[in-house]
């Protein structure tokens, strides 16, 4: 019997301390940059660095609670789901994050 194929590749991107509290760090990729956010409680989330509204750089937004506010038009994006908060509608792609011993890993789809 064949084992299931692993469709995700975990990539170490930084340490939690490398991400400013209530801020972000950008992971540059040809397929689109990823913004890695750190909340006040040191939770870490990752979204495609493009607001679903007008593609603003979410990495330059303000983090509050588990939300980031886009710097262009103040859309609020939920860091846990990537969904825009009402009344706005849209979704930024979310990437799974794993933190182990202070190291941050992103799950990226295998080619």
Automatic annotation (TrEMBL):
Residues 11-106 form the Rieske domain. The keyword Signal does not apply. Signal peptide: none annotated. Keywords: 2Fe-2S, Iron, Iron-sulfur, Metal-binding, Nitrate assimilation, Oxidoreductase. It holds the Pfam family Rieske_2. The keyword Chloroplast does not apply. PROSITE patterns: RIESKE. NCBIfam families: nirD_assim_sml. This is Assimilatory nitrite reductase small subunit. The gene is nirD.
